[in-house]
Amino acid sequence: MRAFRKEPLGLLERLTAYGDVVRIDVPGSAAFLLNHPDLVHEVLVADHRSFHKGPTIQAAKLLLGESLLTSEDETHRRQRRLIQPMFHHERIASYAASMVRFAERAADRWRDGEEVDLQAEMAALTLAVVGDTLFGTDVDERRSATVRRALTDTLGMFDRVYSPLFRLLVRLPSPTMRRYRRVESDLNRVIAEMIAERREAGATGDDLLSLLLRAREDGAGMSDEQVRDEALTLFLAGHETTAIALTWTWWLLSWNPEAEARLHAELDATLSGRAPSIEDLPNLPYTQAVVSESIRLRPPAWAIGRTAVADHRANDVLIGAGSIVVVSPWLLHHDPRWWPEPEVFRPERWFTDATERPRYAFIPFGGGPRVCIGEPFARLEATMLLASIARRWRFASGSDRVPEIQAAITLRPRGGLPMVAVRR
Q1: What is the CATH number of the domain that holds 256?
Q2: Is the CB of residue 252 less than 8 Å from the CB of residue 294?
Q3: How is the beta sheet containing 324-327 ordered, strand by strand?
Q4: 372 lies in which domain range?
Q5: Which residues, in sequence order, are CB contacts of 279 under 8 Å at separation 6+?
């Protein structure tokens, strides 16, 4: 447990030496690491009813309540049916112009030779996009700072989730929990303000918050508490993972000048100096491959946990009810069995060897009925923001140091990512 809290990625990598099904005894239960695409498919798809979300997401109910991310069984199916129409292809495509507008606004602020913290910049940018496209509201600096601070503090708390004393710790008036309660209060206030603004405007818009307030099934709509839970989940998850993906993308490009040059050549040929639009996507295959290769090497969601609610067999190993199952996109995405030269950033691999890979060797958004509902939104956003910014800017690493990875709920660079903006 100490090793998992100190260096989770290193521990997982060492465990793979024992095979594709590895049992680890942890306080209170058994845990199993599954590291083969076929075994992952069985857990996430074929036998998904035998599993609920794992300890980390269960702990997230403290903050997120009964949301699409944390709920189970019929509650989850009902919420998914209500929310799914908000993520239809046509609706998501309509967000592209807004994504580009905010990217252009961010790109206008930077100065040639200026050092910027790209993690902070990408977080502010994706937060603005989510606020506008999904909530129809301006995420001003006060709200943005509140959300970013809350995320950092919350992620810092979740390294305690696997402690056998976690349920006791969250009840104690410790400095950590007092800070967490302030975070929770701040976030609730931001979301309550947004809900009040939408109600005052009649909740007639096409933004997600208005649709949540209007959503009904069998004559019953969502309570304000349910709307709060879903809105907060989509607000946090809808910007953090994309921000992290883009942050690592800029760093990977700076360390791979040939890939960066090919990206710039595609953008220059397709856009001819103008901002991108949704119609340009078919002509930006390499840009999209850069995004895929980035989230392969640095998957924002690096581990997926499940708790068995029924017995399950993996390679004839019995996983009893109550056991924890861990599936790691980090491990799958770096496995040389599926990825030639797995540590190399090579976007062109997405044009050549895709048919030779098992489907569940690449799971940045999970899979099965619980696959991330925002995957199409996140992919479009990452591509449009990357195209908008990279046509005007590149970023140079200020040192030869590889950023330390902070594997909390997401895969952040510890301490941010300072880089130098270089005007193209």
Answers
A1: 1.10.630.10
A2: yes
A3: 21-26, 29-34, 324-327, 304-308, 51-53
A4: 2-423
A5: none
Q: Is 375 exposed, middle or buried (0-12, 13-18, 19+ CB in 10 A)?
A: middle
Answer whether 0.85 is exceeded by the pTM: yes
Which run of H or of E encompasses 312?
A: strand 312-314
Quote the crossing angle between the two packed helices 175-200 and 55-64, to the nearest 10°.
60
pLDDT at 178: 75
Based on the structure, what is the number of domains in the chain?
1
Cα–Cα distances (Å) from 118 to 33, 289, 365, 413, in that order, read 33, 21, 23, 10
Q: What is the pLDDT of residues 13-42, one digit of tens each?
A: 999 999 999 999 877 779 999 999 999 999
Residue 52: both structure tokens together: 């609920």
| Residue 116 clears pLDDT 60, i.e. is over it | yes
Dihedral angle over CA of 277, 282, 286, 289, nearest 10: 100
Token pair of 58 as six digits: 């269960």
Exposed, middle or buried, 417 (CB in 10 Å: 0-12/13-18/19+)? Answer: buried
Query: Residue 64: how many CB atoms within 10 A of its CB?
Result: 23
Tokens at 77, concatenated: 């199916």
